[in-house]
Amino acid sequence: MASKPLTGTKVLLMLVAFFGLVIGVNVTMMKLAIATLPGTDVDSPYAAGLTYDREISAAQDQAARKWQVSAHIERRTDGGAAIQVEARDASGQPLAGLKFGGRLERPTDKRADLQVELAEAGIGVYRGNAASVAPGQWDLVIEGEARGARVFLSRNRVILN
């Protein structure tokens, strides 16, 4: 059986096919990486930069109030999590009438974030439940509102097993 000789045209076609395949895979991976972006902290760094001064002012106001707010999260047997927040003013008196909300944010994937509604269960005690919380690291974000304005913000890293 006689083999065909390796010609310049064959070599050129093999090189074009090889580099075409490599470039095609690179373009596909680049598009997938740009489309997902699950690890970003904010959607728009520019917009976050514009609100930076307001966040500093809100943090200073929160520190001046000297509230004592503690949050406790506990894994339930059904795979969910129970969250309890206790809020007291600077003199230790319970804070009633606030609207607290919570979020469990996945540090590595914003798509897994869970909203948790916290209802006032007693004077200064707010409770809520999150269903189907995957094990691992989470950021527990607690926000408190009074008269439509945010008056408290806390972010803590928690590990749920």
Task: Give your account of this protein's structure.
With 161 residues, the chain is α+β, with helices and mostly antiparallel strands. The chain has a domain at 66-160: Immunoglobulins (Immunoglobulin-like, Sandwich). It contains three helices and eight strands, in the order αααββββββββ. The chain has helices at 8-36, 45-50, 52-65, and strands at 68-75, 81-88, 99-105, 114-117, 119-122, 125-130, 136-146, 149-160. A four-stranded antiparallel beta sheet has the order 1-2-6-5, with no helix packed on it. It has a four-stranded antiparallel beta sheet with strand order 4-3-7-8. A hairpin with a 2-residue loop joins strand 5 and strand 6 (125-130).
Features:
alpha+beta; 30% helix; Immunoglobulin-like; Nitrogen fixation protein FixH; FixH; four-stranded antiparallel sheet; 161 residues
Secondary-structure blueprint of this entry?
Elements: H1 8-36, H2 45-50, H3 52-65, E1 68-75, E2 81-88, E3 99-105, E4 114-117, E5 119-122, E6 125-130, E7 136-146, E8 149-160
Antiparallel strand pairs: 1-2, 2-6, 3-4, 3-7, 5-6, 7-8
**Helix count, per DSSP?**
3
The percent range for helix content is 25-40%
Shape: elongated
Radius of gyration: 26 Å
State the order of secondary-structure elements, H for helix, E for strand: HHHEEEEEEEE
Mean pLDDT over the residues: 91
What's this entry about, in short?
By secondary structure, the chain is an alpha+beta fold. Helices cover 30% and strands 37% of the residues. The protein has 3 helices and 8 strands.
